[in-house]
Amino acid sequence: MVVILAIVAAVPLANYIATSTSRTLFLSRSNDADWFATMAESPLQSGDIASLRELAVRYHQLYNTPVFVVDVDRRVIATSRSGVDVKAPDLKVALDSTLAGRLPAEPPALWPWRTGEMVVARPVVNNGRVLGAAVLRVPTEKGRDQVERGLLLLLGGLLIAIGAVVIGIVRPITRWVLRPLNDLDNATHQITRGALDTRVSTDGRAPELRRLGDSFNSMALSLHQARQREREFVADASHQLRTPLTSARIHIEGLSRLSPTARFALSDIDRLGRIVQRLSRLAGSDRPGDIEGSEAPLDLAQAVKERLVGWKAVYAADDLELIIGEMVPGGVAAELEVDDILDVLLDNASKYGAPPVEVSVTRDGTEVVMSVRDHGLGLGSRDLKKVGERFWRSAHHREMPGTGLGLAIVRSEAARVGGRVVARPPIGGGLVIEVRVPLIDDYED
């Protein structure tokens, strides 16, 4: 009887191993397919597919995974290998769903005796319109080998479990029964941390748990779609703002000849225009161009000190202490938007951190480092890795006003001049945000 019960218990476990391995492989390559879909958006509109084809070939060489992109008429636009047959049954099913704007169903479990490749497809979308699809043909040999090893381990565990039951060990069985609820609990925590692509398995479980898992997956999908709509909104809003800004600038230029005060309005209009351009780049609707670097280098320390004059008054009005630390001169690209970057960092420090807030500019090898440090609660190690992601906000700060775009813009601006953003916990607590940009060698102090 114990042997029969053990065998009955092993069946759903074996199914879980095969399904879990398949889902893990599918989800890991889904992120790559999403990236290819994003990169294919502009080439599908412009027709310039040379760079897209190069990316596909490089990805194939690196991960041994063929990839190709088709347009809405299922014509192969770019591929890493020739001979793609879009009428193959597995590809046809995936493309039917993807080109209709739906996510294809997850592939079946990776049993060792199954052969063939896994198809992972994602739609290429612009403003809600499907332009085509990015498709990966993922090899499954390693996944099937992993499942085979898992099944062998399961067989060994089955023999041990029989002995354990015989001698009265019930606790492991109880844990197995509760595993679906533990999976759901873990997935809920992942969702709260911002991992909106988290899903739970619904195969081989009781009807009640299957319905609960389906409801959870539907909720996670709705949240993921809402985040996508937020990104599309930013792209649309930045696009719609360009025309009225241009018109306003023309009118104010005419007024500036009559009123010197209008010149200040021109400066604000130009700055607002730059903000709209950055939002557009951040949303992925524009391809950032190369920086010409024709202007003279900018002394980052001097630019920071000039901007801090206004911020000291703002902090003083709120009874907050702002400390100006070490200011080491260093030349950086003139295109770096120092005012906007410093505004975001000091605004975040005043809202989410705690005084005193210290600003410094130093050199570190070939980099000039602008640091803003507060003495608040800081961030955990997982949250530190997410700093700068679009629409991401720490769980401690989600009840506070904000969009989650400030640090994303800072990271985008730093990257535009070859720099980067680093978040770290300093000694003594709090949080340090460092904007590290390349030092211009021919700059003279």
From TrEMBL:
Its EC number is 2.7.13.3. The keyword Transmembrane applies. Keywords: ATP-binding, Cell membrane, Hydrolase, Kinase, Magnesium, Manganese, Membrane, Nucleotide-binding, Phosphoprotein, Protein phosphatase, Stress response, Transferase, Transmembrane, Transmembrane helix, Two-component regulatory system, Virulence. It holds the Pfam family HATPase_c. It is an enzyme of class 2 (transferase). InterPro entries: 2C_sensor_his_kinase, HAMP_dom, HATPase_C_sf, HATPase_dom, His_kinase_dom, HisK_dim/P_dom, HisK_dim/P_sf, Sig_transdc_His_kin-like_C. GO terms for cellular component: plasma membrane. Its cofactor is Mg(2+); Mn(2+). This is Signal transduction histidine-protein kinase/phosphatase MprB. The lineage of its organism: Bacteria, Bacillati, Actinomycetota, Actinomycetes, Propionibacteriales.
